[in-house]
C-alpha cells in the first residue's frame, strides 16, 4: 500500500498531515494526487462524500502554489458556506508548515467588507460559494484572471441548488489556460456538459459505482402509518441511544423546526439547522454538534449540504427527499473514513414505490426492520444500565469518612431491596402509558413471502391467542410473558404480548400457536381457571371478523378497549418529557419547502443566499418558533445588511 510520500507529497506537507492523523491515502487521493502533481491534465473525479476529496485536490494545490507570487493562483468553488469554511480550515492545516500561503474563504452570511479586506492583504487561494464570489467580482474586489487552478467541489450539489449559470459565468472569467478539477458524487448530464465545455481531455477517476451509495452504509427502512412517524422516530432513537450521533432529514423548514422542538421538549439532546437561522445561529448549532454537545441534528436538504462532521452513526430520513439523487447525498453523511454507518428511512405505506426507485437508481439494497416495541426499548436500557454498574470501577479515594457516614442508610438495606430501589429509579422513566403503547409497525402492502410479519428481535407475528387473565390477576407485560413462556416451555423471545384488565393476547408464530393454547387452556392461575383460544384478531389488533370467539366473553367480542389504537405521539419516552398527541410527519408539505430551484427557479429570491441562507428576503415576524435551548433567543428573518445584497441588477438566488 502506498503512502503520501510515494505520491510525491513534499516533506513540509507530510509533517502537517501526519500531525492531523493522516496515515495512508484513500483511493481518490491515491489516484488524484500523482496526476495533479506530475501531469498537466484536468481531473474529473467521481466519488462519494466522505472519501477524502479535499485532500485529493488540497495537498497538490498547497504544494504547487508559489508564496512569492502575490496573485490569486487557485480558486475552489463549493456549494455551501459550511463546506467553504471546512475546506478553508483543512487547507490551512495542510499548509501550516509552508510559510507565506494565504487562504481566504468568501461566503454569504458574514461581513463582505472584512472579506474584501482579507483579499486586499493578499490571497493565494480563494475558497468560495458561487453567490458571494459573484458579488465580489461585480464589485471588482476580486480578480480571478490570474487563476491557474480551479476546483469545483460537490459539483452535482451546486447544480442541484441552481448554480449552473453562476458556475458557467465564473468559469468564463477565468483564464483559458488553467487546470480544472471537478469532483462530484453523481454524474448527471449537466455535470458532463460542464466537463465537455470547460475541461480539456480530463483524467477520469471513479471510486465506487456511478451514483452508488457507500458500501460501509447499511440501508434500512420501517413501514408505519404517517400519524405514527414521530412516535416511531422516538422508539428508534431510544433503542439506539447508547451510541447514536445522528442527522435527521426533514423535507421542510417548518417540519424541521417542529420535530426538533418536540424532541427537545421530550428530553432529547437535539437541535435543528434550516434556512431561517442566521449565520451566527447556524455556526453555534454546528459547533455544538461537532463537539457532541448535540447528539441529534434535524436538518433540511439545503441546510445540511456541505456538513462535514466525522463519526455520524445514523442518518435518519423522517421524510424521503423529493429528488431521489439527494438520498445518496443524505446517506453519505455517515459511513465516512472507513467507518460503518446506518441510513434509516421512516416509510409510510404510500412511499414503497419511491423506495424501489432509490434502490434502482442508487444501487443500494434496503433491509426491512421493525420499530422496536416499548418493552424491547425498556429491556435494552435495563441491560445497558446493569452493564454500566457491573463494569464501573470503584474509586476508593472518594469514599472518605464523611461519604461513608452518609452511606449508612443505604448499607443497612438488604442487598435485594437496594438493587430494586436503584432499578426502580432507572425504570421509572418508562411510564405505564409508554410500555403499553401499541405496536407501531404496519403490514399493509408490505408482507413477507409467507404472509407473516418481518422480524424484530426474533419476534414473528403469525397467530394471536386470547387468554382470559390480565392486569386484574396481577400481571404486567413482563410477568405475563414470563408466565406464558414457562407454562408453554418457549423462549420469551418467541412471544409478543398485550395485557389488558381481565384478558390478554399472545402473538406467536403460527406453528407455535397450538402449543401455547394446549399449555394454557384449562390451566389455573392463583385458583382462577384460564381459557386460551385463537383470537378473532390478527397480530397487531386488526379484526378478521366477528365470528371465531362468538359472544362468550360478556360483550367483549365487539373489540372493546383492547382493539383501539392509542397514539404514542409525544408521550414520555425514555428521555422523559410531556405527554401529548402528535401527528408526526402527517402534515401538508407546503410553501416553506427548501428545494433545489430546478422546479422553483422563478422564486429564487425567497431562499436568501448561500446554503439555506439566513438572509431570507422575507422580513416577516417568525417569532412564533419561540425561545429554545435553555433560553437561547432565536430571531428569524430581519433586514439584510446592506453589504450583503447583490450589486447591480444581477440578483440571483445564492442558495
Describe the structure.
- With 655 residues, the protein is α/β, with parallel strands linked by helices.
- 33% of the residues lie in helices and 13% in strands.
- It has 21 helices and 22 strands.
- The strands form 5 sheets. A 7-stranded parallel β-sheet has the order 3-4-2-5-6-1-7, sandwiched between helices. A 7-stranded parallel β-sheet has the order 10-11-9-12-13-8-14, sandwiched between helices. The protein has a 4-stranded antiparallel β-sheet with strand order 16-17-15-20, covered by helices on one side.
- Helix 2 packs parallel to helix 3 and helix 3 packs across helix 4.
- It starts with 10 loop residues before the first helix and ends in a 22-residue tail after the last strand.
- The C terminus is likely disordered.
Describe the protein's topology.
Elements: H1 11-19, H2 27-38, E1 43-46, H3 53-64, E2 74-77, H4 81-94, E3 103-106, H5 112-120, E4 125-128, H6 130-138, E5 149-152, H7 155-160, H8 164-172, E6 179-184, H9 189-198, E7 203-206, E8 217-223, H10 229-239, E9 246-249, H11 253-265, E10 270-273, H12 279-290, E11 296-299, H13 301-304, E12 314-317, H14 325-331, E13 341-347, H15 352-362, E14 366-368, H16 374-391, H17 401-411, H18 415-427, H19 432-435, E15 463-467, H20 477-488, E16 496-499, E17 504-508, H21 513-520, E18 524-525, E19 528-529, E20 532-534, E21 627-628, E22 632-633
Amino acid at each position: 500500500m502506498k503512502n503520501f510520500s510515494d505520491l510525491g507529497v513534499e516533506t513540509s506537507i507530510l509533517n502537517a498531515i501526519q500531525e492531523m492523523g493522516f496515515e495512508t491515502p484513500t483511493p481518490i487521493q491515491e489516484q488524484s494526487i500523482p496526476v495533479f502533481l506530475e501531469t498537466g491534465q484536468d481531473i474529473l473525479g467521481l466519488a462519494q462524500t466522505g472519501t477524502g476529496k479535499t485532500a485529493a485536490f488540497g495537498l497538490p494545490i498547497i504544494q504547487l502554489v508559489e508564496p512569492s507570487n502575490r496573485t490569486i493562483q487557485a480558486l475552489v468553488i463549493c456549494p455551501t458556506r459550511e463546506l467553504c469554511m471546512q475546506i478553508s480550515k483543512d487547507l490551512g492545516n495542510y499548509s501550516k508548515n509552508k510559510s507565506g500561503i494565504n487562504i481566504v474563504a468568501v461566503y454569504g452570511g458574514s461581513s463582505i467588507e472584512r472579506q474584501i479586506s482579507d483579499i486586499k492583504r493578499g490571497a493565494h487561494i480563494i475558497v468560495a460559494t458561487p453567490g458571494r464570489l459573484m458579488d465580489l467580482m461585480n464589485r471588482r474586489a476580486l480578480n480571478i484572471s490570474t487563476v491557474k487552478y480551479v476546483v469545483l467541489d460537490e459539483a452535482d450539489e451546486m447544480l442541484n441548488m441552481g448554480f449552473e449559470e453562476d458556475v458557467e459565468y465564473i468559469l468564463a472569467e477565468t483564464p483559458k489556460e488553467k487546470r480544472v478539477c471537478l469532483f462530484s458524487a453523481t454524474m448527471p448530464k449537466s455535470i458532463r456538459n460542464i466537463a465537455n465545455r470547460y475541461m480539456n481531455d480530463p483524467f477520469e477517476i471513479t471510486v465506487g459505482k456511478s451514483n452508488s451509495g457507500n458500501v460501509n452504509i447499511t440501508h434500512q427502512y420501517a413501514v408505519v402509518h404517517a400519524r405514527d412517524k414521530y412516535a416511531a422516530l422516538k422508539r428508534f432513537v431510544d433503542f439506539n441511544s447508547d451510541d447514536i450521533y445522528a442527522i435527521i432529514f426533514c423535507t421542510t423548514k417548518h417540519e424541521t423546526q417542529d420535530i426538533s422542538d418536540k424532541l427537545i421538549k421530550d428530553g432529547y439532546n437535539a437541535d435543528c439547522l434550516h434556512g431561517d437561522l442566521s449565520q451566527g445561529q447556524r455556526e453555534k448549532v454546528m459547533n455544538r454538534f461537532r463537539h457532541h454537545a448535540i447528539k441529534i441534528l434535524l436538518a433540511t436538504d439545503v441546510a445540511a449540504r456541505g456538513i462535514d462532521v466525522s463519526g455520524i452513526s445514523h442518518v435518519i430520513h423522517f421524510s424521503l427527499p423529493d429528488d431521489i439523487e439527494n438520498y445518496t447525498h443524505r446517506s453519505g453523511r455517515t459511513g465516512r473514513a472507513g467507518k460503518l454507518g446506518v441510513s434509516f428511512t421512516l416509510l409510510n405505506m404510500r412511499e414503497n414505490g419511491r423506495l424501489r426507485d432509490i434502490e434502482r437508481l442508487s444501487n443500494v439494497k434496503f433491509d426491512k426492520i421493525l420499530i422496536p416495541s416499548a418493552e424491547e426499548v425498556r429491556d435494552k436500557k435495563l441491560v445497558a444500565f446493569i452493564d454500566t454498574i457491573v463494569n464501573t470501577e470503584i474509586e476508593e479515594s472518594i469514599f472518605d469518612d464523611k461519604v461513608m457516614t452518609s452511606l449508612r442508610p443505604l448499607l443497612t438495606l438488604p442487598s435485594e431491596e437496594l438493587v430494586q430501589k436503584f432499578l426502580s429509579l432507572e425504570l421509572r422513566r418508562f411510564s405505564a402509558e409508554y410500555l403499553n403503547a401499541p405496536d407501531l409497525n404496519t403490514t399493509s402492502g408490505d408482507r413477507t413471502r409467507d404472509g407473516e410479519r418481518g422480524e424484530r428481535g426474533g419476534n414473528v407475528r403469525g397467530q394471536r391467542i386470547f387468554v382470559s387473565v390480565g392486569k386484574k390477576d396481577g400481571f404486567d407485560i413482563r410477568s405475563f410473558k414470563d408466565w406464558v413462556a414457562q407454562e408453554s416451555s418457549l423462549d420469551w423471545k418467541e412471544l409478543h404480548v398485550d395485557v389488558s384488565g381481565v384478558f390478554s393476547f399472545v402473538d406467536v408464530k403460527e406453528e407455535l400457536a397450538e402449543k401455547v393454547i394446549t399449555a394454557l387452556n384449562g390451566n389455573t392461575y392463583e385458583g382462577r381457571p384460564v381459557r386460551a383460544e385463537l383470537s378473532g384478531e390478527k397480530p397487531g389488533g386488526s379484526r378478521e371478523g366477528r365470528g371465531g370467539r362468538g359472544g362468550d366473553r360478556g360483550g367483549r367480542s365487539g373489540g372493546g378497549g383492547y382493539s383501539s389504537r392509542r397514539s404514542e405521539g409525544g408521550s414520555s419516552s425514555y428521555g422523559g418529557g410531556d405527554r401529548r398527541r402528535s401527528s408526526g410527519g402527517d402534515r401538508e408539505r407546503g410553501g416553506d419547502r427548501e428545494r433545489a430551484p430546478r422546479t422553483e427557479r422563478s422564486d429564487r429570491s425567497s431562499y436568501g443566499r448561500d446554503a439555506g441562507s439566513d438572509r431570507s428576503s422575507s422580513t416577516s415576524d417568525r417569532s412564533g418558533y419561540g425561545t429554545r435551548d435553555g433560553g437561547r433567543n432565536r430571531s428569524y428573518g430581519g433586514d439584510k445588511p446592506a453589504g450583503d445584497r447583490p450589486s447591480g441588477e444581477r440578483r440571483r438566488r445564492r442558495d
